[in-house]
Amino acid sequence: MDGFRSGVQTDVIATDFAKAFDKLSHRHLLSLLESLGIHGSFLAWLRSYLVGRQLVVRVKGALSSSFLASSGIPQGSHLGPLCFLIMINSVVNQTIADGIRCLLFADDLKLFVHSNSPLDCESLQASIYRLEDWCTANHLFLNASKCSVVTFHRLSKPIVYNYTLCGSPLRRSDGLVDLGVFCDERLSFSSHIEALASRAMRTLGFLKRNTREFSSVDAILTIYKALVLPTLDYASTIWSPSYGIHKYRLERVQKKFLRYIAYKMGIAYENVDFESLQRRCGLTTLERRRCLNDLVLLYKIVNDVMHCPPLLSRIDFLVPRVASRSPLLFSVPFAATNYDRNRPLARLPRSANLFLTFYPQFDFFFSPLSSLKSLFSNSHVSFQ
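== Putative RNA-directed DNA polymerase from transposon X-element ==
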């Protein structure tokens, strides 16, 4: 988003490690642990945990001869993920060139650069070469067919650089999935919202097919809240729609569910009052749910319930020059476009200020989170 605001493109290399947990070298991991200051009995204990494991293969009830596993970490264990993270974290210091940034979550590594010229692209390509060398040295392998490059931009003529990985051209994509959210090259999230609405509709269809014989409306509501609503809420702070068509597409899911509830309650189709039925079921509009998610996230960041210094540093507080009784707490950055206005770091403080305008008694630093949720639930204002 910073690239969009400054008018430059952002090239992102999305990588995929082939069987990362199975290919992790015991020797390289133990050597790395020793370089990090782990010695003596603790290192010996970790060595005994990793080295010397006997494996067999079962095929149709027949067992192979046992053999030693020279690589891989036990999956499903507590130490396994920790050992892998220690190993994969070393990629950051050894592969990143100047001006290149990375995002790393488990074995999901993304390299990116804000490209003003082909020189920036060449720096990113240099980091790819370093990544290849790191993989070779540590006996890890990249699945080149699953790696891709995405150029995030809003330019009429972006720079198209032909990146290579393992001697082959990197596949270009019009977006990538990051932790379950599809990010298209213009970060409009239109495709994600459409896919999300379709998935929620399918889940709702599953619910309806399997609750035909249910007589308890409360039971159906519980299933809806457990299966459908989490799908519609997941990561909403990132993709929260600003266009009416997208909001309508999502609200259709809940309206269809309310029609089903009305049928179960014996209410004629033409007599369904969605607002009153929604309140009767203890539900609210999906737009209000997304707004509450925004406020809760901001509260958690500000109060360090969610420890994220990079995000906290991007939130500005409003410090009046003179004594003022204004309840406004956050400084809302100037937005020249609708896209800029709806980005999370502009939308969250704006929603919080509007909430504090209606509820000045709420203290963002000392009031409990339950108080925020209670005040929000009892209001009928859309804080957006």
